[in-house]
Amino acid sequence: MRLPAGQRNSDPLGTSWPQRPSPAVWFIAPALALIGLFFLLPVAGALLLSFTDFDLYALGDLSNLRFVGWRNYRLLFQDPLFWTALKNTLYFVLVGGPLSVGFSLGAALLVNHRLVRCKGLFRTVFFLPVVTTLVAVAVVWRYLYHPRYGLLNYGLGLFGVAPIDWLGDPDWAMPAIILMAVWKNFGFNMIIFIAGLQNIPVHLYEAAAIDGAGPWRQFRSVTLPMLTPTFLFVAIITLIGYFQLFAEPYVMTQGGPANSTLSIVLLMYQEGFRWWNMGYASAVAFVLFAIILAATLIQLRRRRD
Amino acid sequence: MRRIAAALLYVTLIVGAGLTLFPLLWMVSVSLMPATEANLFPPRLWPRTVSFDHYADLFTRLSLARYLVNSALLAVAVTLISLLFNSLAGYAFAKFRFAGRDRLFRLLLGAMVIPAQVAMLPLFLLLKQFGLINTYGGVIIPGMASIFGIFLIRQYALSIPDSLLDAARIDGASEFRIYWSLVLPLCRPILVTLAIFTFMGAWNDFMWPLIVLTDSDLYTLPVALANLVGEHVQDTELMMAGSVLTVLPVMVVFLALQRHYIAGLMMGGVKE
Amino acid sequence: MGAGQVLKMGWILLVFCLLGCRGDSAATVVVEFWAMGREGEVAPQLLPEFERRHPGVRVKVQQIPWGAAHEKLLTAYAGDAMPDIFQLGNTWIPEFVALRAVEPLDAWIAGSPDFDLEDYFPGILATNVIAGGLYGAPWYVDTRLLFYRRDLLARAGYDQPPDSWDEWLTAMARLKAQAGADRYAILLPMNEWQLPVILALQRGAELLKDDSRYGNFRSPEFRRAFAFYLALFRQGLAPAVGETQIANLYQEFASAYFSLYISGPWNIGEFTRRLPPAVQDQWSTAPMPGPDARHPGVSLAGGASLAIYRGSPRKPEAWQLLAYLSEPAQQLAFYRLTGDLPARRTAWREGALADMPPTRAFWTQLQALAATPRIPEWERITSKIAQYAEAAIRGALTVDEALAALDRDVDGILEKRRWLLGKSR
To answer: Using the beta-carbon criterion (under 8 Å), do A256 and C74 form an inter-chain contact?
Structure first.
């Protein structure tokens, strides 16, 4: 409830309360100022940068900067490297995403099962990879994936599978990264699924059981529908996270072999911080943003149907 | 029937747990192997002789202690600072009424979709103007307030009864006093969750410190580790020891506080 | 002023303290020195003598892995966080001069009568000269040539290493036959641009045309060299691996996974340190085989220089360090620690390096060098060369497709240069 204008001006010390805007302003000001200055302003700056050809020459001498309009975006869409990065990122999202969500759901169902005791222990174990530092585990998995001395190929060899050059074969490098990403992340979504599962009223299951539904039928008609909002949430955050794939290829493959693990963010990093084509890199970043936005909206729209 | 089902469940769970833990256990095992033992065929699962040489090496020759301190310092600083600013804003969004409050909040939520990488390049140039490149400040600043943190706290603070706050106001307490002595203690569970979340995120943060820090004295553990890989990729056992040291602190924090963290996550998941 | 206010102040104070915190201590003058790879590991050992001669100056060495060095230097420049003196690969000198990041050294040399420019290898020194000004002092020279297993080559019937492409191919075919199915004659990591470029330079190819305005990779000379390079993989003489897949290069060399390796002088030190004793006297070096009777084939005029940051507040001290590291005695000591070859011929003479087995081949090779285009975009162009070479090796592109794509990308990279050159006309 706002005080009328005249009254506000005549009360500069703020001795009346409680709906005066002043305290709120002081409370949100620090956070908002920080977010505004160090996030939103740079985002606007990135948009501006993407319309210039800011590069090394411009870094040395600003008079070398040109305003180029949509040229960066045009070049982007003609650049085979960009399409490769997009393809790889989509591969990661569309294969890794469902895999990760699937494992999370599976783990959640198992851990949450009424027949299981020490739920907490299993929950913790499955969550442990989420907590670890990505760079550290990328290093570990890099050695696990070694074609000759790695334990993965050794284990596969025991089943008669020929050694796969995980990080050296362009066909297997992305699956290798997907496997590692799934291992690292499935615990997080598992927790959210467990919460969702625990929120399903027991009487629904009881009613279904009375109607003669077996466990699979119960899963399909009770569990899955009730989990839909959780599903949506998990799907969206996984999507947003996976589109930003960077650290795994950076540490394990540097985008190789033959650019098969080059992701959009890695491309942006290389263009921006390795070659200092900041204009072009900003364009890449914005295209990524547009893609994520579109994907999120698609997901939200699907829910409405 | 029930016994078989239970047995199957346990077997699956145990196999799953084993597979999940295996890379981490192997990491520890290799870190204790003497040099070059990991590059043998067939690969070994545990060391023939336990050797702490690599850990010693990391602390003496490769000054890992310095990176450990940097990571700890930065993670704690980011956590404390962001807790303060986020809780101030989250509480305000929940409990104060002001013009445009809901619209502003929705705008902020929408901004969460923007990937952080979009801002990184100009942010780098901006911080350079302030002379903050290659300083602790440059690393801390982007994390000092987060929309996600504000969101979490606001959701939780909504449940604080207004009557409590009004009563405190009638008693003459200043708004800040109410926040500090009344709201914060009430928000303890979400604050702990957010603290753990922020600490882990800050500890594990890689891309931004990689970009901002050029002086190796200031490196955080993930950046130092990536650097180490660049130089010592041949030394498997050394790299594993480095990984162990990077992962250990944050895992300890998690294991100690996991009940709060997981409870907080589950709260967040349900609210959606 | 309540407890709340005090705490608020405390937070703000903490924030400001940490914001500016750099971990600096400033008693004496501290010169910050960035060195890469093995050089960075070893540089501190050269310093006690320097600090003894110059009390009041302390040197802080920061080691940077080669893979990240280029981007770290650029990032430091962009972020106003450059070291005072740094090691700079000499192919990067044009780039950093264009950025105005490097101090011209002519004035400093004029003020130091002991500094003997004539003593440097002319081909290497020339890479440090841009538009008539000297911007770096060569620290060590680097060129690529053949490292080989004497015993395995002898077993294949060669007492002397091959000195022409034909002989080389035959030798490798025999080595491969001797080695068997899952071993190879030569290791050529796929993401290295050096060998295709060396082979092209040996054929006399001009890599860029029109004053480095356009790519020239479809020229017949480059095409022939490129096809030769690809043939090494197609014939199974080299494994199609990238450098990230070699877990331990030295173990592989010792276990005869490959018998030949094209590399630079730092591996003299590394081989000596890391190869098992059994193999220690079985390896040697030889100049690059040339395409025909002309011998040796040329190789790259590589190496690194010491450069001083143009905006450094400690230039006199940085210059003192540069002069110190350029002394023949220091260059020789540096060689003994790393295997990196001195850039000054006096050091070679003092150490009799031209006669000693591993370095003798380098002495010969250093008389036959070819330079790569000295433009800022060169580093980026080399990454494109590596990218398309890898694509061609893997069979994703034919030779002509790869070279056409390479030309197209390089033309795009050089667009700004063309604009700048046009502007200044």
So the answer is: no
Each residue's pLDDT tens digit, B27-48: 998 888 887 777 777 777 888 8
Please state which of the four CATH numbers 1.10.8.60, 3.40.190.10, 2.30.42.10, 1.10.10.60 is assigned to the domain occupying C28-142+301-351.
Answer: 3.40.190.10
| Percent of chain A whose pLDDT exceeds 70 | 92
What is the chain C residue with the closest CA to A259?
C387
Residues facing C59 on adjacent strands? C31
Chain B residue closest in CA terms to A133: B204
Candidates C416, C417, C421, partner chain A, best to mutate (most A CBs within 10 A): C416
Q: Rounded distance, CA C208 to CA C407, Å?
A: 9
CATH number of C145-300+373-424: 3.40.190.10
Q: ipTM > 0.90?
A: no
Secondary structure (3-state) at C389:
helix
Interface with chain A: mutation pick from B95, B118, B169, B198, highest number of A CBs within 10 Å: B118
Q: Which of B36, B124, B180 sits opposite C4 (nearest CB)?
A: B180
Which residue in A213, A121, A216, A115 sits closest to B5, CA to CA? A115
How is A230-252 classified by DSSP, letter by letter?
Answer: HHHHHHHHHHHHHHT--HHHHHH
Reported CATH class of domain B60-270: mainly alpha
pTM for this prediction: 0.86
- Decide if B136 and C19 are in contact by the 8 Å CB cutoff: yes
Please answer whether residues B220 and A123 qualify as being in contact, where contact means their C-beta atoms are separated by less than 8 angstroms. Answer: no
CA dist A54 and A51 (Å) reads 9
| Binary contact (C99, A60; C-beta < 8 A) | yes
Cβ-Cβ pairs closer than 8 A, A with C, add up to 66
